[in-house]
Fold this protein.
Amino acid sequence: MQFGPPGRWWDDRATAKSLRLTPEQQTRMDAIFEQNRGALQARYDGLQQAELQLDELSKSPAPDEAALDAQIDRVAHARAELEKANTHLLLQIRREMDAEQIKRLEKMH
């Protein structure tokens, strides 16, 4: 799920002006981001680690197919966990906006 441009779009001056975000909304959005940063980073790190392990397994001279399959499952799970955490963050951000702001944001995307 992508809700808005990539990154901290609410901190972009032009985007905030176009959406008519108030400074209070931006402050709350920043706080939400900070509250979720650790979980997002942990899940991202977990995905990176799982992908690295998959890469190492696949480069083995005699790859173990069962081990590769299991690692692929771990990569998929790590990716799903990161996506869930990101979606949770974006939904919290969305709750800080009114209906008109959401419509404007959807038109930008």
Residues 6 and 65 are 37 Å apart (CA to CA). The mean pLDDT is 93.
